[in-house]
Amino acid sequence: MYIVKSDYSKDAKAPRVQVLFAEDYLSISLCDLWTNINTTGLEAEGNVELKNGKKPESLIETIIKLATNESDIVLDYHLGSGTTAAVAHKMNRQYIGIEQMDYIETLAVERLKKVIDGEQGGISKAV
């Protein structure tokens, strides 16, 4: 497993993109099966009613922890209900969300307004 680390600072003296091998940087190697992440009962997580296709905040949190540091930028080009942006906000990351469907106003935008106002669902108690 490897992680791509990027430095987008104009003042960076090191290469902008660097491949890091997980075994060199992770104290505990993650396996392919993450049994600690609940995948049921997520219909209303983040105060967003969506029965199918929503990812658990704890899954997105694990991925963001692996690949970013505080203040890094997280890009989600399939924003959907806004789970990735919500988790990124809760973890003090910057985020960009892109969605082509019309429901962005009713799902993602409303969810992110609640998160910015301090909504305590999902991973909020853990971070």
Automatic annotation (TrEMBL):
What keywords would UniProt list here? Methyltransferase, Transferase
Q: What terms describe the molecular function in GO for this protein?
A: DNA binding; N-methyltransferase activity; site-specific DNA-methyltransferase (adenine-specific) activity
Ranges for the DNA methylase N-4/N-6 domain? Answer: 32-109
**Name of the top EC class for this enzyme:** transferase
Gene3D superfamilies reported in the protein's UniProt record: Vaccinia Virus protein VP39 (3.40.50.150)
The UniProt record lists the EC number as 2.1.1.72
- Name the record gives this protein: Modification methylase LlaFI
